[in-house]
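Throughout our pipeline, every protein is held as a single compact record rather than as scattered files. Nothing more is needed to write down the fold, since each code stands for a local backbone conformation. For reference, a complete record is included directly beneath this paragraph.
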Amino acid sequence: MTKPVGKLIVIGGAVNKGSFSETDYDQNIEKNLNFFERGILRKIISESKHKEDSVIEIVTTASQIPQIVGTEYKKAFEFLGAKNVNILDIHNREEANSDAMVARANAADVMMFTGGDQLRLTSILGGTRFHDTVLLKYQEQDFIYSGTSAGAAAASENMIYQGSSSEALLKGEIKTTQGLGLIDNVIIDTHLYKEAELDVFSRQ
């Protein structure tokens, strides 16, 4: 794989709803925004081609609660000054092969893939026209692929899709399959290794 022109920003762990799920989120948004928003999401904006004017697509395909997740990311990005934030929930491969989804992928400067189930990402998006467009933009344009949790895990050529923290260091206990292929020779582990390491040391 040739060195891509685009940027890959992967974020690990346990933020299927983001870290901004406070019940009074809207009423006290200034207080409720924390490092995930002020640090990582702001970094995505600052690294993007047109900064606050960049077109950001929040891809919620991995999530079982796409409207909740998408809305919360949209609010957070907009509070940080982003002006063109959209929610992109692709439900099936037919949609992922449609002209409308390809057009939105082509227009995006940033795609933020949320948490959930990485197998949903690869089974719905993998090998489709939408997937091909994202890969091409990442290789040839000033484009950002960002993913958290499932969105991070799916970014690699091969990805983890099953395994428990307590067995993460045991041969054969972690299951892998083909990811979205933005990066080779890397597996992105968003939840398993640190907990497994601590568990191993706690037994010594």
The longest helix spans residues 66-79.
